[in-house]
Amino acid sequence: MARRVRRFFISVSVTALSVIVTLAAVELGIRIFSPQAHFSVVVNVWDKRLGITHVPNSRGRLRTPEFDTGIVINSKGLRDREYAYAKPDSTKRILCLGDSFTFGYGVEWKETYAKVLEKLLDCGKVNGMRWQVVNAGVGGTGAAHQLAYLEVEGLKYDPDIVMVCICGANDFSDNSMYGLYSLEDGGLVRHEAHLPSLIRLRLQLRHIMLYLPGYRTLFGESHLITFIRYRIARHAYARRASNLRDPATIEAGRKRAYELTEALFSALQARCQAAGADLIVIAVPEVDGSPPPERVANLISFIRSQGISYVDLEQRFRQEQAAGAEVFYPLDTHWNSNGHGLVAELLYEYLASPPRRLIRGLPDTGLPRFTEDNFGLSRIDS
Fold first, then answer.
1. Bridge partners (DSSP) listed for residue 92
2. 190, 191, 193, 197: CA torsion to nearest 10
3. Cα–Cα dist 300/310, whole Å
């Protein structure tokens, strides 16, 4: 009996060692012949209310050839410091909603435009008034997630201002992906989120793996796991796209996605108005400085026609790029720290300039002003 047990454990040990050696060999081969550029210890998980959300109190990492940044998620699922829902006295609060640009893909959390804006605004506090800018950005989301988040969680923070960042490259498709809202008879209908089975499985597995010993130090650095994970994702998206190859089907889907997006922004405006908050929208400029695509331009025109405050980043970004400033990562195309700083300064300038409808109660001398010809960190007091 003892001999059989010994043989069993030897057999299991040899098998395990063989698997480990094989995986190590494959890992080495991929590192040599097909190195993976992107490492990600993720903090996202599927959520039936929001489609995708952050795992509270989790830590992650994003590493590419262009950046290496840490991710720390607070107890309420935000990439930010801790905030109580109850707003402190003599405090104005801004809630920032958006995708990976707002989340701060490629920069540290204190470098995101939300936190830079908070620092700029708080420098100009008057009569003890403070500013809090809460970063509720979640990568891979659009206005559908942002509306759902506002209804489920965001309004608990009692924001005075809600800022939404549009990314025209993928927001229209993201609004349809999770099925959070549909447009029926001209009205929005709310649903629980649904995802393609492979994508949901991938998110659920990643959630489980977050708690495996050594995941952040071993699996998070693995070229093999990165290789497998991205091919699973690519396969899932390819299967989804294969059903949309007919040009008429594609065009109909694009039209539905656009109409849904307009309805979502109308609903965002209505929710903000009902809560006594002002809505401000910004849009990510094109990396090459070109005008926005037609759908994005049409959406911006619609937003303005609805009386929603829109802060145009495009012109200043184009000027800075023409002057040689780098505001995007060249390969990744997200904003770098300079880009986030520029967005924060543009928003600050908008909030600080007359008639200051969005910062009621502050006197004209309430906030420091940036000089017109030097849009950097030097400032002059009003």
1. 131
2. -150
3. 8
Nearest in space to 263 (alpha carbons), one of 164, 175, 173, 163: 175
Residue 352 pLDDT greater than 90, yes or no: no
* Residue keyed to tokens 């997200």: 334
Which tens digit of pLDDT belongs to each residue from 158-200?
Answer: 999 999 999 998 899 889 888 999 999 889 999 999 876 666 6
Comparing C-alpha atoms, which of 208, 180, 77 is closest to residue 138? Answer: 77
Question: Are 336 and 320 contacting, i.e. CB atoms less than 8 angstroms apart?
Answer: no
CATH class in words for 34-359: alpha beta
User: φ and ψ at 374, to 5 degrees?
Assistant: -135, 95
Predicted TM-score (pTM) of the model is: 0.81
Q: Is 241 exposed, middle or buried (0-12, 13-18, 19+ CB in 10 A)?
A: exposed
Say what the pLDDT of residue 370 is.
Answer: 37
Residue 240, SS3?
Answer: helix
Residue 298: both structure tokens together? 């049409």
Q: 332-355 burial by CB neighbour count: b if 16+ within 10 A, else e?
A: bbbbbbebbbbbbbbbbbbbbeee
Query: How do residues 293-315 score in pLDDT, each as one tens digit?
Result: 999 999 999 999 999 999 999 99
Q: How far is CA 299 from the centre of its chain?
A: 19
Residue ranges covered by each domain of the chain: 34-359
Q: How far apart are CA 175 and CA 262, in angstroms?
A: 11
Cβ distance 63 to 83 under 8 Å? no
Between β-strands 44-47 and 278-283, what pairing exists: parallel, antiparallel or unpaired? unpaired
Tokens of 166: 């549009």
Cα–Cα nearest to 56, from 117, 161, 138: 138
Cis omega before residue 355 (within 30°)? yes
Residues contacting residue 257 through CB under 8 Å, at least 6 positions apart: 172, 173, 175, 176
248 residue type, one letter:
A
How many alpha carbons fall within 13 Å on the CB side of residue 150? Answer: 30
C-alpha to C-alpha distance for 70 and 122, rounded to whole angstroms: 25
Q: Indicate whether 253 pLDDT > 70.
A: yes
